[in-house]
Amino acid sequence: MQTLWLAFTFVRGLGAKRIKNIYDTIPQLTENYFYDDEQKHILMKVIKNKDILDVLFHEKIMKEYIKQAQEVIRNHQKQDIHVITIGDKYYPKLLKKLGDPPIALYCKGNIDLLRISNHIAIVGTRHPTEIGKKFARRIAEIFVDNGYGIVSGLAVGIDTEAHIGALDAKGKTIAVLAGGLHSIFPKENTNLAHRIIENGGVLISEQAIGSPAFRAAFVQRDRIQSGLSLAVCPVQTDIKGGTQNTIQFARKQNRLLFCPVPTEDVPATRGIFKLLEEDAIPLKTSSDLPYIIQNIENKKCELLEDNKQSSKPILSSKIVEQLNLFD
Length: 327
Fold this sequence. Notes:
Rossmann fold
């Protein structure tokens, strides 16, 4: 099953949205669909493009694509990289709900983290103030102590501080990269990437090894950061910048938005002030945290269509002791 979904990505014109439609309609599709008239009939209803169907129903071509997919998987396994496709049990539930999810994820480290939906994304500018750095670390520590994993993009600045904050709190963190996992970008975070893996975290990318970190890949990465998470916390950002992409994806994906109330008026906080005027929940003091955490838990039930009430404590005593930064 893993091989087939990866093979579909090689079919010209069969993008993520169309493959997702196939998956939603026939999640148990097998490599033997050539011989199953019912499955072929369903595919014809889902994919109405004749050129694409001609390829999908061409057994020789598709078997060649399947071989190609098997080779891609073997090449990644040689570098201890897991290839997880939309049909696999390790594929994140929240990410699968996107209209254009990555069909394959290339992952290095603890892939069990991908089966857990209790993550929040902490993101922000590559040029934070010292206060912004402290906020990022402390927010990561607080949410790790309350049972959440931390998602960020391994970029310099706020992303780096979020990952470090999670690790220092003995938590798990997911780093979403824009390029293939054959190399770490930016290079100055190579040691941090190793530390993430060594401490039970995971690096993931939508790009296969050898793929460059082209400009559009960073935007695609941003949708994955929010897509993996129940909530997104922009710590510092200007009015324009890469963080704004993640914010827009969070809105589109119906994720909770919250952010710390700035204590300084500088370019790195202008986007946060604007966000607070729009739809973000403010995090200013310790009294704001129970409300935010409860809203995250409500969002979890909503996104996963789970009517069970969370048994998670709203605020642990350890967190209360660490809230002086916000008081």
